[in-house]
């Protein structure tokens, strides 16, 4: 090697600088986190809101129980039984106050339906209404719930997602529930964590998608073999099948998934539906564990999987959430998929799929801008929802996380990464996995509440606005529980309490809400989109039949408006295809809108 | 990884009809691994990141070659370094790919003793990033299809190529040592033996075994010492694994490889010194 001494010295200095570059980058690019724990007054002044955990004061004392599966799985029970906590919002009795349904997963445990008494408290009425004792031994356990008025009688019905016998309960005018699973034609067993109500064919009747996780031929309490684990950490294809139950309108459903082009054995964990391309038909997004996400374009009759084509189905990760949000107020949805990030071991990063500029319709493509927007790293992330928590006019993002919190000081990560990298014959067999022995796996994590600045950056303010819990969070749902014009937050934790974060927002920021009722469309108006135009900007939201992780937000749509808002109009795209415009709707109130008989512009 | 494999000087022999320059074998093999892995399972998070790593590595080699050797160096070595970084580094960001390639190539020019560089370039670059930027960088440990057939194809092809390059003994000793230590660990910790051998069935180890530990430029010359060194790599790896270090193989090679090189350089120097003294007398 030649080169004079000066050249070598210069090269050495540059080399040294490069070696320390990661430390410099770490210092300057650490995500903006407001970690200061401040009082509510300061939080209100600084961020425009604060959250207060009030579950006990509100009469909610629910603690989730995890299932105890086949004893052969005992060594890794914390992992195989790590999901099930779920929360969904429904006004089951149409009294104008959103109620809360929360599921339990212990054998013999009871689910709870917290009726909103309107005075700041709730009362569990699940037992008297017949939807509490749904985890009886031999029938499996609950892992989620989604609500939709499948018979258009005006009352939201309940589909209970289970590892076990799925259940459909008909809502009898808010006075009770009748189990109609057999009449509806549901299969005898599905090991699912996600389901979505949506009217895929636009016939005015809600259909139901159910995504299997473990294969449906496995009874997790009586396994014939320990080979029940994924056959690959990121390319697994031995998960549960998918179901699309087409609503025949007579209380019966026909399973049509294969007929309409949905054939997948990925390990589905989260799904949601919305008209992502302005086609008038709801598309379906499925986030899969151990694999790529799937995006199904819906032409009203068939589904076409376009994950790779659109860019969202290329890199396999551990998808655990699907939420849609118009984060840039552009009238287009971004899609948030949560994954795993554990420093030094596995940095999947969460995905924020934002429509690529200039692409629309069938040609729409997505870029993952999670890093650019600052919402990439959320630990072992689970449920997340978009919502304007401080009513400033932009959608914020609440993310819960944490996988298994046991011994604070001992981690299972080394053993996890060791086996997960192995061949399918090893990873696929539960007996090859080292025993947990009380160790944690990404446990005790702090949550994320990312405030959207509207210009493409999110700042985590969780701690400073009062979100201080470190439970193993799973499911997040948002609702204006007390009709105050603010979004409250509910979080279901695995093996932990149901948390209710009551929101207080600065009164300077205005808001508007919409409650829609379909006539030609399904009565729940699931799939309807409201685009609000105000102060030179617009934001689109849709009514969802399930989103996040095993969750469902309130069907009423909530828009924050910021200060001194002047609303130009609200445009409603009904699932029937009708378009309705409401000019100058008043801020500060809930607008109840029934689908008109006439067809608008 | 990063140095092209080259066979020892052989006596002249008849040129076969189709003969492949050894310099191209390793690049072709690693390209095959990349293509098989990607076309089968889509192992790459994005083409752009891998391309960035390759381009940076080759560009750095060209520039530094001009500065320090006054010639355009053959790009095969840098190509292997770049593609290795592109496969092994996993990060949502772009900068780790560029930085890792740059550090890897520059280490060959900076970290030299008696005219020899002592760290395998990509082992150095990847180890530095995993150690200093764990919040942004991970390595390929689970991001590959875990199926049997591609693993067997890669093991077979790799073994044939390594055999041809006369470095199969290094691979064989390492694999044998790893397996022996895996069973020992299983006995010591009570973990299923399948979980202890699981890592070697993954793609990270295939790249590690066929490219990193066999790198001729950063391994000692004697065949016996090569066997000893690679055994020590496996031994240190076991110690690190008992302390639950996820990237134990990278760190073990990072420590043992240069140490062995330094010992050899010191012994060479001492031998030369003694020879000089003897000649003087």
Describe the fold and architecture.
The complex is a heterodimer of chains A (601) and B (281). Chain A has 601 residues and is mainly beta. Chain A has nine helices and 40 strands. In chain A, strands 6, 7, 8, 9, 10, 11, 12 and 13 form an eight-stranded antiparallel β-sheet that branches. A five-stranded mixed β-sheet of chain A has the order 5-4-3-2-36, with no helix packed on it. The radius of gyration of chain A is 24 Å and the shape is globular. Chain B has 281 residues and is mainly α. In chain B, 68% of the residues lie in helices and 3% in strands. Chain B has eleven helices and four strands; from the N terminus they run H-H-H-E-H-E-E-H-E-H-H-H-H-H-H. Chain B has helices spanning 22-41, 47-69, 76-88, 95-110, 121-132, 148-164, 168-189, 193-197, 203-212, 223-242, 248-280, and strands at 89-90, 112-113, 116-117, 138-139. In chain B, a hairpin with a 2-residue loop joins strand 2 (112-113) and strand 3 (116-117). In chain B, helix 10 (223-242) packs antiparallel against helix 11. The radius of gyration of chain B is 19 Å and the shape is globular.
The value of Rg of chain A in angstroms is 24 Å
- The average pLDDT value of chain B, as a whole number, equals 85
* Uncertain segments of chain B: 2-18
Low-confidence stretches of chain A at least 5 residues in length (pLDDT < 50)?
none
What is the tally of helical segments of chain B?
11
User: On the 0-100 scale, what is the average pLDDT of chain A?
Assistant: 95
What's the helix count of chain A?
A: 9
Could you estimate the helical fraction of the residues of chain A in percent? 10-25%
Tell me, briefly, the overall form of chain B: globular
Q: Based on helices, strands and strand pairing, what is the structural class of chain A?
A: mainly beta
The number of strands of chain A is 40
Head-to-tail CA distance between termini of chain B: 44 Å
Strand order across the largest sheet of chain B = 1-4
Percentage of β-strand residues of chain A: 25-35%
What pattern of helices and strands is seen along the backbone of chain B? Answer: HHHEHEEHEHHHHHH
Specify the biggest β-sheet of chain A: 8 strands, antiparallel
Distance between the termini of chain A: 77 Å
